[in-house]
What does this fold into?
Amino acid sequence: METVVSFHKTEDAYLFCTYLESEGIPAHVFDEFSHRVTHHKMFNDMVRVVVSGEDLERAIELFREYETRVTAAPAVVGDVKFWPLALLTTIVGVLPFMFSRRKPPE
It folds into this structure.
């Protein structure tokens, strides 16, 4: 088995693998769970698409064609942070009651 290309995302590797299979080349995705084990940025592009040695040249040609055909840019997803909303909710909803000094009803 020879590596054709490595991807940063597992989804991209599976899309290219499906493209190769639609062109008649059996392909497999390797190391799709390695990022869960390593948790290191150096190993981010370890998701590999592999084919047999006899299909390698054709797969590389298809990858060049695939790159030109795929025009969609990857979605930019930032880290979602909920702490500003939690802080605002605490300030607006809880703090006034904590400092109101009202006595409980008797």
